[in-house]
Amino acid sequence: MPPLYRAPRGTRDLLPDDRPYWDRVENAARCISTRYGFQKIDTPTFENTGLFIRGVGEGTDIVEKEMYTFQDKGDNSITLRSEGTAPVMRAYLQNGMQGLPQPVKLFYLASIFRYDRPQAGRYREHKQFGVEAIGETDPLLDAEIITLASDFYKTLGLSRIYLQLNNIGCPKCRPIFLKKLIEYYQNHKDELCGDCKRRLVTNPLRLFDCKVESCQELIAQAPKITDSLCEECRTHFDTLQSALQAYKVPFTLNPTLVRGLDYYTKTVFEFWTEGIGAQNALGGGGRYDGLAESLGGRNAPGIGFGLGLDRVILTMQEQEIEVDQPPPPGAFLITLGDAAREYRPLLLRSLRDAGIRVANIYGKRSMKAQMRQANTSGTPFTLILGDRELEKGQIACRNMETGEQTEIRLDQVIPYLKPNT
Ligand code: HAM
Is the CB–ligand 1 distance for residue 329 below 6 Å? Predict the structure, then answer.
């Protein structure tokens, strides 16, 4: 009979077999963040809905279509974390972090919830490793953040990761560019796909995101934002590129790279890969110098990224990168007879108190069945306790590699196993 319930569409169980991958990527994230001077922050799994509407932007896909929003029992509109940056900025403002030495450098490992169309590499709950550095405009900080992300992929052994880089201007120069862009597209209105006709009105920068074949030529011929940058943005972009070269982080300039969230200013970037289907963005981020103010705070420029860990793991598997498997139990305890079975908890207690990872069997099983399980566990030692041995205060210890079996005194089990487990 099929089970009555399955995990909701777009979600999945991360099973023990997946754990070594998750441990590997999460440990690498912690280790690299600490090396770069970032401290961990955990924000709530849900926030007031307004935070995402104001933070991410009303016309974005996230806010328009993808949020998990509900009224709680107090009639507050609540939304499951649909991205990590606005919550971290809220926490920065709420907790007076503006009073700390700037920039404040924070990282997180968090579940993100989006009502996306599920497919390989795209889930309704996914995990991100994110960092946010708030309180500084220096382009050298941008370079450091991008280098951190690049180091993360490198540490994991990933290859064929391509950094795409762009600068989408600031409130001074972007409106001038948008005017040019709209003018250009108005002249080609009849050639646009339905979605692009809508984008032209709601969010013209997103015209660059269109995947429809017939719009590609229009995108290629469209004005480029990098030709319209103001002096400040231009200098920022140039300094960033020189710093990335100094850090030896290769990148491709991509003047049509725009991101799906409205808070970005100046630097934007994505890491792309191949081989995991349509979902080729392994991570992305950028600067958000106006976010604090749009959340009602004082000016606090920032930059950060979010890397999709589910996709990172898929890519590791695709590239056949191996990870450490958990070690087998240090010992496996088999008992035969009622007295030995009764004695088992006492022995297990003292072995575990001594830090020995010991596995055992439940129920009454034959010696053969128990041995079979000990064999498959991969343990180096099997302890065999029968009523007869117990009476003599002894236990048999079999070295599973050599097959050699030694009788030892019960009070000597721990020192016997300890150096080997
Ligand atoms: P984002 O581009 O929306 O940016 O998401 C970051 C990454 O999360 C994506 O590049 C992708 O790897 C992964 N991701 C997104 N949606 C899904 C999904 N449905 N299933 C699996 N993985 C997914 C942000 O969220 C920004 N908050 C990043 C940021 C931080 N910008 C500045 N600071």
Answer: no
Beta bridge partners of 46: 80
Pocket of ligand 1 contains residue 55 by CB under 6 Å: no
126 pocket-lining for ligand 1 (C-beta < 6 Å) = yes
Domains of the chain as residue ranges with CATH: 16-173+229-318 (3.30.930.10), 331-420 (3.40.50.800)
Task: Give the tens place of pLDDT for each residue, 206-259.
Answer: 899 888 888 888 899 999 999 999 999 999 999 999 999 999 999 999 999 999
End-to-end CA distance of the chain: 43
Structure tokens that stand for 377 in this block: 């566990």
To the nearest 10 degrees (0 to 180), the angle between helices 85-94 and 49-56 is: 110
Q: Whose CA is nearest to atom 5 of ligand 1?
A: 306
- Atom of ligand 1 at shortest range from CA of 118: 19
Return the pLDDT at 394.
96
How remote is the CA of residue 82 from the centroid of ligand 1, in Å? 9
Q: Is the pLDDT of residue 310 over 70?
A: yes
Strand order in the sheet with 358-360: 358-360, 331-336, 381-386, 394-399, 405-409
Q: Give the 3-state secondary structure of 393-406.
A: CEEEEEECCCCCEE
C-alpha 308 – ligand 1 centre gap (Å): 6
Whether residue 139 has its Cβ less than 6 Å from ligand 1? no
Residue 1 has pLDDT above 90, yes or no: no
Give the pLDDT band (50/70/90) at residue 190. confident
Q: How far, in whole angstroms, is CA 323 from its chain's centroid?
A: 17
260 CA → ligand 1 middle, Å: 9
* H or E element that contains 349: helix 338-353
Atom of ligand 1 nearest to the CA of 270: 10
Question: Between residues 132 and 58, which one has the greater pLDDT?
Answer: 132
Measured by CA distance, the residue closest to atom 21 of ligand 1 is 122
